[in-house]
Structure formats: structure tokens, C-alpha cells
Design a protein that fits this description.
The chain is mainly beta. It has helices spanning 11-17, 197-202; strands at residues 21-22, 28-31, 34-35, 39-45, 52-58, 61-66, 71-75, 82-88, 95-100, 111-120, 123-129, 133-138, 147-149, 157-168, 171-179, 183-186, 205-211, 221-225, 233-241, 250-257, 262-266, 275-280, 297-300, 306-310, 322-328, 332-336. The protein is built from 2 helices and 26 strands.
């Protein structure tokens, strides 16, 4: 799973570290997003000053209970389990580790679970267990390639060639329609500016990074990008595109990967209400409104759509965030945030 310099250890080694009692949890685990080809940080805070801590990483969650010492952790201890031992908190009880990710996008979409343990230096039989952090490996930034400005009008669409066969809900597409109102559809264009849930799921197969009443004629550009790896990824970039609500420009990029993964990278987004983000196979009466702002992952089996509807009561809250829809099997998806 990872190309890290770690020692793989089993439950017995953990049991040797974990002694008789488990202290009241106080150490907090956090971290940055893991992305192929980049690095990510894991941090702990609130630990015992100048104490030892260790990190466990697994592909499956627990809980796992060590009956002989009466301690429970939230890792599954599968064959994928990895650990980093003998890390030191500073005088304030904080610590950090930086990891380098592999460069192969085959690792994208992997879900992993991370938890830290902290030993009280004044009472080595006292162990603090951190919160469990769940995250995913996001695809690498495909870089810039040949860019083409589409010159879309209000409610306009343009058909584009992807440069590869893109699998989406069990179908494969070599072409797509880029729609001015913040969506990419397959089979037919979608020029509607009506942000309606039933229309979204019942229309054409669609990826909606920001389906709302955008209007490139008022400002901004919509650009396609073959990326630095043509034939492997294709991006559509909305750069400062205004909308008919006069709520400010929106900038975001949706990237389609040859394996079926879909990544959405949000900069600043203007419309706070009246928008849909997500995917639909089209022609469906099934609804499936989810909350994309909650960290974690959700599984969606074909042919279920998955999306979030943003309204005045639930305004858009994904600015400056990154969302991945990872393809699973032949036509299912994981929402990974």
C-alpha cells in the first residue's frame, strides 16, 4: 500500500508496548491529505511532554481488543498493518511525521486508517490511545498539457474528445459534453440552468463539479486540458466564471482519469445556494442526497446516483477543498473526501 520506511509488526509487539492500563484519551491525531507523488504529514497534539508515541496504519478498522492487558484500539491488524515506533513528542506534547507517497496512480482511492498511541513517561504502564483518523489516497495532480478555451455562451455546451475510454457507471465514453452550467455529461448535452434534483438524476449521465446557473459570458473562462499525461487524464477548468446570481466568480477543476476516478479541486466558489455536486448515471428516479463536507468515505453501488444539493438552508461549503469519487469494481463508486 505504501512505499514508506516502516517496520511491519504484529499484535504481539503492540501488546508488549501496551501495558496494564489505558489512560484517559488526550492525544489528538490529525494530518494532511495524501496524494500520489506528493507528501503528507501526520501530527499528534496533547500528548505527554517529552514522551514516546507510535503510529499504526491499516487498510481495515477494528476494534481490536487485547484481552490480556484490557486495551482496545481501532485498527484491524490485517496483513496490511504497518507501524512506526519510538517517535518523540516535544516539550508541549506535540509530534509529527512526514511521508512520501508513491508515484503510481494505481494506489489512488485506497482507504486507510491511522491511530496513535502515547506512553506516559512518568508511568510507563499508562497508555493513551488517540482518535482514529480515516482518509484516502488521492490521485496525483496530472499537471498542465494542451489547453483549449471553449468559448461557451450562457447555457451553452461543447462536445470534446477525452483522448481515452472513460468508464462511468458501467459504460465507456471517449467523448463528453462540457456544459457552461458546471457539469460534464455523456451521450448528450445538458444546457439546463434549473438546479433541480429530479432533473439531475433523470437527465443524461452527468458529473457535476458545480451544477448551477453559471454564465461564462459575464466573465471567466472554461478550458479543457489534456494534462501532462495525455491519454491518462483529462481536465476541465472553470476559471473565475461568473453566474447569473451576481454572487461572485467560481474557480474549480474536474479531472477524469483513465481508470474511472473523478477528482474535483475547488478554489473559491461564488454561489452559496442553488447548486448540485456529484454524479448520476442518468435516467434514474432514485435520489441519494449526501453530505460531501463530512470527512470519510461512502460507497455507492451502480446504478445509484450520489450528490449533494446546496440550498439557502445548506449553503455551499466546499471552497478550497478536494473531493475524489473513486471507481470501485465495474460501476460502483466511493466518495472520498
Amino acid at each position: 500500500m505504501y512505499h514508506y520506511s516502516m517496520n511491519k509488526i504484529g499484535a504481539l509487539a503492540i501488546a508488549l508496548v501496551l501495558s496494564a492500563t489505558c489512560a484517559t484519551a488526550q492525544i489528538t491525531l490529525d494530518g494532511t491529505q495524501a496524494q500520489i507523488g506528493g507528501s503528507f504529514d501526520v501530527t499528534v497534539s496533547g500528548g505527554h511532554p517529552n514522551s514516546l508515541w507510535m503510529l499504526g496504519i491499516d487498510r481495515s478498522s477494528g476494534p481490536t481488543t487485547f484481552q490480556d492487558v484490557g486495551i482496545t484500539v481501532d485498527l484491524g491488524f490485517t496483513q496490511h498493518f504497518l507501524a512506526v515506533n519510538n517517535q518523540t513528542c516535544d516539550g508541549s506534547g506535540n509530534g509529527s511525521l512526514t511521508f512520501a507517497m508513491p508515484t503510481d496512480n494505481v494506489f489512488a482511492g485506497i482507504v486507510y486508517y491511522v491511530q496513535a498511541l502515547n506512553v506516559d513517561p512518568m508511568a510507563v504502564t499508562s497508555i493513551t490511545v488517540s482518535n482514529l483518523r480515516t482518509s484516502t489516497v488521492h490521485p496525483s495532480d496530472p499537471g498542465l498539457g494542451t489547453q483549449s478555451m471553449l468559448g461557451l455562451t450562457d447555457d451553452g455546451s461543447a462536445q470534446v474528445s477525452l483522448g481515452f475510454s472513460f468508464p462511468f457507471y458501467g459504460q465507456s465514453y471517449t467523448q463528453a459534453f462540457v456544459n457552461a452550467n458546471g457539469s460534464v455529461s455523456f451521450g448528450q448535452a445538458n444546457g439546463s440552468s434549473t438546479v433541480d434534483e429530479s432533473f439531475f438524476v433523470g437527465g443524461p449521465a452527468t458529473i457535476a463539479p458545480l451544477f448551477t446557473d453559471l454564465n461564462p459570458e459575464l466573465g471567466g473562462t472554461v478550458v479543457t486540458d489534456t494534462t501532462a499525461t495525455p491519454g491518462q487524464a483529462f481536465a476541465v477548468r472553470f476559471n473565475g466564471v461568473d453566474d447569473n446570481f451576481a454572487s461572485g466568480p467560481s474557480s474549480f477543476t474536474v479531472t477524469l482519469y483513465v481508470g474511472g476516478h473523478i477528482a474535483i479541486d475547488y478554489d473559491t466558489v461564488g454561489p452559496a445556494t442553488g447548486a448540485i455536486v456529484g454524479c448520476t448515471p442518468g435516467g434514474s428516479a432514485m435520489t441519494n442526497d449526501i453530505d460531501l463536507s463530512q470527512p470519510g468515505f461512502l460507497a455507492h453501488a451502480s446504478p445509484s446516483p450520489f450528490y449533494q444539493v446546496f440550498t439557502a438552508q445548506a449553503p455551499f461549503d466546499l471552497s478550497n477543498s478536494f473531493v475524489l469519487f473513486g471507481r470501485v469494481g465495474t460501476s460502483g463508486y466511493l466518495s472520498l473526501f
